[in-house]
């Protein structure tokens, strides 16, 4: 085993909206700092920010206000948001959108009078979604990447972060262990401050939208490093993923919400073996029909599927032609072309769709200034929890990553002025992690190097997809969640038995089987956390629906779930080492006083009371 060692003042994991904004703002705050962005893919070419289609929520127009954006976000969250984080989001979005336009040079669509065009998105009381056609994310990431390149910020591309390494006394982060995917070498990057911005990503479901490089690595690393994760049961499904059959990565990709907003219909199948569409079914589920929120439409589609009223590939249909094919072609050019690539005529015919896992509302507990409970570790973007509560509004995702990414950059630079020391890593933890990651290459008895390999990664992936879709998906029950817990434990054991060949001519360079295996390890770990949190929440809120507990529960006494690993190396970071309380109130005293702490296998779960710092259920600040 060889271990390369590098040093940087600030290490940023991930190059989405959060990572790149953090790099720019840290550099602006203190140009003398060495800043390194480490990313699993290529900078500017990976992650989900680049995939943003719809747009960016911000209160800009006359008649709108940050208070209104805040109330929409809180109502959408089903009162589970950390309200200080939500307030930071809506106020920070105004500053960030001006920065994107005026400093970074993004061109967003405009009205004839020159004002920025803002479109409607579900769950909002005002049309506030800024966009560039349906390619908003490419515009944002391209401009950001140009600026990062121009400032000479260091890059470690195709470097996969695998472990957050604490100091020997466990009190702070010392750096991050990585694999250089191009060579297969291990690299330890010592850093004075680290940002976790690897973007979550629920790619453990059979149908999912996020980019293929995302496999919940950041969340799995945070859990192993002893950090608490909140709201992990909250996985958002987008109702209309393209259903283009098996064997194509296009299946699961988003057919945008604007189609339903513009008047598209959802039709079920006839259940008589024919390809003919059946009836428009949303009327049976919600008075708003197709314009109901994502969670309601997803549940309705899933119910139709479960009843067997499906299209040939097992989903339902979206129909647009009643609006006039030419109008549809003009208004939804990108979508029409994408569907045509897969053999569907969106403008004149029917397209098969299915709900698809889109976004994780849960993640690492963090403060409005992006600090976490582990000293020196900051977090931003989709890796964090608390901003969106039980449901994220469309358009609040990219706002979240860019607002908090920028804040994280400034916070890290400021923090380093007072906490400037280099901290030595726990060398034993580095050795242990390398051993764990090299284990699949261990030679078989009598061999110099593992020459045969064994186990079937693909079948484990398929089993994970099915387990999460069937039992931890859109409709949940205690029985299904317990079944999933058992199945996930089996899959974890199967993964540990996989052996990979270590005698290939290229060595471990670009060893995709190895990285598939590591992706699956992270996904199975986080799937277990999701199932644990979902089993503990015995009510139905936003994205989380329990058929055995369909009621919303008592809003004024709302609680959120917090999961920690029981076996984190060096123990969990539960104290307020950085002056941060894990719950909105004091975590330990609450969990003791209300008896809500439970030990569930490898995890400890607590339910913390939501602290309504700005507005209480039933009230408004408008
Ligand atoms: C198809 C699609 C459409 C969307 N449309 C919208 C929309 O219209 N509006 C909206 O608000 N939101 C939308 N979202 C959500 C939005 O994209 C995300 O909320 C947001 O962009 C996440 O930003 P991020 O910086 O946290 O993560 P990302 O942009 O996903 O970046 C994560 C980065 O981390 C890297 N990474 C991952 N693992 C590792 C590792 N182990 N080591 C090193 N690097 C790692 C990745 O390679 C990537 O560079 C959409 C998402 C998808 C998938």
Explain what this protein looks like in three dimensions.
The chain has four domains: 3-55 and 133-234 and 359-418, 3-Layer(bba) Sandwich (FAD/NAD(P)-binding domain); 237-355, Flavocytochrome C3, Chain A, domain 1, CATH 3.90.700.10; 435-536, Fumarate reductase/succinate dehydrogenase flavoprotein-like, C-terminal domain (Methane Monooxygenase Hydroxylase, Chain G, domain 1); 555-609, no CATH class. Helices cover 33% and strands 18% of the residues. It has helices at residues 17-29, 66-76, 83-103, 136-150, 217-224, 258-261, 294-306, 325-331, 333-341, 396-418, 427-438, 457-471, 478-497, 512-536, 587-594; strands spanning 3-13, 35-39, 56-57, 118-119, 129-130, 154-157, 159-166, 173-180, 185-196, 229-230, 235-242, 265-269, 277-280, 316-319, 350-360, 363-365, 377-379, 384-385, 559-565, 598-600, 603-609. Strand 20 (598-600) and strand 21 (603-609) form a beta hairpin. Helix 12 (457-471) packs parallel to helix 14 (512-536). The longest helix is centred in the C-terminal third of the chain and has 25 residues, at 512-536. The radius of gyration is 23 Å and the shape is globular. Flavin-adenine dinucleotide (FAD) is lined by residues 13-19, 38-41, 46-49, 51-55, 160-161, 197-199, 209-210, 213-214, 217, 254, 359, 381-382, 394-399, 401.
């Amino acid at each position: 085993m060889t271990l390369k060692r590098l040093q940087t003042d600030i290490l940023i994991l991930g190059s989405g909206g959060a990572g790149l904004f953090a790099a720019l703002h840290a550099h602006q705050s203190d140009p003398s700092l060495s800043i390194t962005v480490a990313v699993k893919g290529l900078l500017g070419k990976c992650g989900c920010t680049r995939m943003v289609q719809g747009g960016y929520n911000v209160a800009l127009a006359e008649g709108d206000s940050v208070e209104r954006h805040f109330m929409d976000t809180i109502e959408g969250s089903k009162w589970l948001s950390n309200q200080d984080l939500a307030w930071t989001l809506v106020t920070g979005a105004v500053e960030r959108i001006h920065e994107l336009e005026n400093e970074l040079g993004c061109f967003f669509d405009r009205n004839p009078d020159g004002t920025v065009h803002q479109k409607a998105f579900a769950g909002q009381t005002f049309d506030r979604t800024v966009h560039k056609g349906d390619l908003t994310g490419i515009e944002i990431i391209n401009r950001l990447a140009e600026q990062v390149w121009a400032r000479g910020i260091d890059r470690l591309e195709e470097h996969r972060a695998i472990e957050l390494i604490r100091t020997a006394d466990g009190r702070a982060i010392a750096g991050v262990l990585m694999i250089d995917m191009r060579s297969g070498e291990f690299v330890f990057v010592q850093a004075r401050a680290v940002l976790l911005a690897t973007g979550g990503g629920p790619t453990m479901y059979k149908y999912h939208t996020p980019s293929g490089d995302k496999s919940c690595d950041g969340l799995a690393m945070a859990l192993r490093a002893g950090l608490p994760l909140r709201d992990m049961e909250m996985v958002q499904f987008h109702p209309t993923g393209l259903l283009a059959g098996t064997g194509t990565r296009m299946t699961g990709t988003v057919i945008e919400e604007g189609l339903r907003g513009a008047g598209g219909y959802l039709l079920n199948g006839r259940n008589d073996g024919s390809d003919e569409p059946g009836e428009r079914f949303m009327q049976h589920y919600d008075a708003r029909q197709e314009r109901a929120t994502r969670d309601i439409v997803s549940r309705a589609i899933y119910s139709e599927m479960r009843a067997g009223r499906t299209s040939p590939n097992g989903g339902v249909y979206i129909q647009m032609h009643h609006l006039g094919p030419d109008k549809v072609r003009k208004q939804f050019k990108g979508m029409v072309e994408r569907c045509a690539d897969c053999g569907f005529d969106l403008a004149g015919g029917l397209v098969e769709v299915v709900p698809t896992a889109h976004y994780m509302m849960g993640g690492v507990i963090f403060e409005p200034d992006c600090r976490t409970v582990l000293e020196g570790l900051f977090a931003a973007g989709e890796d964090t929890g608390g901003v969106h509560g039980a449901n994220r509004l469309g358009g609040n995702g990219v706002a979240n990553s860019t607002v908090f990414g920028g804040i994280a950059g400034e916070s890290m630079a400021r923090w380093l002025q007072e906490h400037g020391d280099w901290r030595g890593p726990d060398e034993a933890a580095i050795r242990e992690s390398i051993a764990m990651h090299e284990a699949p290459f261990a030679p078989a008895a009598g061999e110099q190097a593992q020459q045969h390999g064994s186990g079937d990664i693909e079948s484990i992936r398929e089993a994970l997809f099915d387990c999460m879709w069937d039992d931890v998906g859109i409709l949940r029950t205690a029985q299904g969640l317990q079944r999933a817990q058992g199945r996930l434990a089996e899959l974890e054991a199967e993964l540990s038995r996989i052996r990979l060949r270590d005698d290939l001519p290229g060595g471990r360079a670009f060893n995709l089987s190895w990285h598939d295996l590591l992706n699956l390890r992270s996904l199975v770990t986080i799937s277990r956390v999701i199932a644990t949190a979902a089993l503990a929440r015995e009510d139905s809120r936003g994205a989380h629906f329990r058929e055995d507990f369909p009621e919303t529960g008592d809003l004024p006494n709302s609680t959120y779930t917090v999961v920690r690993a029981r076996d984190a190396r060096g123990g969990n970071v539960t104290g307020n080492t950085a002056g941060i309380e894990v719950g909105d109130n004091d975590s330990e005293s609450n969990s003791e006083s209300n008896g809500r702490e439970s030990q569930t296998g490898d995890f400890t779960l607590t339910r913390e009371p939501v602290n309504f710092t700005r507005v209480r259920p039933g009230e408004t600040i408008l």
